[in-house]
Write a structure and sequence with these properties.
- Strand 3 and strand 4 form a beta hairpin.
- 24% of the residues are buried.
- The protein has a single domain (22-121), classed as Glutaredoxin, CATH 3.40.30.
- The chain is 41% helix and 19% strand.
- Helix 3 (44-58) packs across helix 4.
- It is an alpha+beta fold.
- It has a five-stranded mixed β-sheet with strand order 2-1-3-4-5.
- It has helices at 6-23, 37-42, 44-58, 97-109; strands at residues 29-34, 63-68, 80-84, 90-92, 118-121.
Length: 127
Amino acid sequence: MPRLSIDDLKKIREDAKRTLTLRSGEARAKITVHMGTCGISAGAREIMGALLKEIENLKVTDVIVTTSGCAGLCSREPMATVEIAGQSPVKYVDLKPEAIVKVLKDHVLGGKIVTDYALASGCETTG
């Protein structure tokens, strides 16, 4: 294996930093891909892959991408929830890779909810 140069190490550090920003930390928006067993079997991994690829292609650095378990609506998987600072969260359902890219571009980056895939807006609270 060839020796790593300083430039190689800098590139590795930047790649790791970008990945960390996508997964944790503070940002203006968060996208949660629901990846319970039902979500995974419905295609949530493909949704996550398409989302991460587009974020990297667009060089978006202020959006956190995370996962959760089942959201309780197995028949509407794959699902994702978009949370933008100062706004109500929006749950998107019946997603395909091209749909999550549209949600990223139109809602997260453009500020316009994609009604074709939006199920609900707001928090689930009691009392």
